[in-house]
Automatic annotation (TrEMBL):
InterPro entries: DUF1684 (IPR012467). This is DUF1684 domain-containing protein. PANTHER family: DUF1684 DOMAIN-CONTAINING PROTEIN.
Length: 226
């Protein structure tokens, strides 16, 4: 199965792939540590990159450093990404309705202790299933619509269970038409490393029906837990 992520993304087990992230460090105001300086004391397998975000309270820019290890414990323990078989019934036609102005929706994030960050949502995505109307909020991710969704499979312990915090899906849009190909739903970065701070599904993006399509969860060899 081909992952539903944009071309050019590092392989999950690559030197800067999702499994390689071992630390995200947010620097206090005035700290001028560079990515190169952060490598001190680490083996040659470790790479450092800069990262930024807005402060939750003030919106002021914050600097951080990420450390990636090409020989991380997660890479060594990685087995596979479990997925459902392809099913054309999960290619869903929807309607896209643009929203005037800069419309934002608050998204909780997995490491923000219940606080929210506003994401720009350029329009509503609407469809019906089993007699229920859904209006979804997909945010602008560098020019692509990213849907963060949840469903009853999240966290289930059986073979049909998926990643507990929800899954991601890039939405294909053509004018007022949107296509949700749930076969391309994928495990978010935080399913590979707890050093990522992933958005969680807002209430409008939580389905009452189980989405039995796309990636389920990351499988590690016995005895490993991230």
């Amino acid at each position: 199965m081909t992952r539903g992520v944009p071309r050019g993304c590092p392989p999950v087990a690559g030197p800067t792939g999702n499994l390689a992230l071992i630390e995200t460090r947010w620097l206090p105001e005035g700290d001028t540590t560079t990515a190169q300086e952060a490598l001190a004391g680490h083996p040659a397998t470790v790479t450092a990159t800069a990262v930024g975000r807005g402060n939750l309270d003030t919106g002021a820019p914050e600097r951080g450093i990420r450390l990636w290890d090409a020989a991380s414990p997660a890479i060594r323990a990685f087995d596979t990404i479990d997925a459902f078989p392809f099913d054309p019934a999960w290619v869903v036609e929807a309607t896209f309705t643009p929203v005037a102005g800069e419309h934002t929706v608050p998204f909780e994030h997995i490491r923000d202790n219940g606080l929210t960050r506003d994401k720009v949502v350029p329009g509503d995505i609407s469809f019906s299933r089993d007699g229920v109307d859904y209006t979804l909020s997909a945010f602008d991710d560098e020019g692509t619509l990213l849907l963060v969704f949840g469903d009853p499979t999240n966290g289930a312990e059986d073979d049909g269970g998926t990643y507990a915090s929800g899954r991601f899906l890039f939405v294909t849009r053509h004018g007022d038409r949107a296509v949700l190909d749930f076969n391309r739903a994928f495990v978010p970065p935080c399913g590979f490393s707890d050093q990522f701070n992933c958005p969680l599904p807002p209430r409008s993006n939580r389905f009452a029906f189980p989405v039995t399509a796309g990636e389920k969860r990351v499988v590690f060899r016995e005895g490993f837990a991230h």
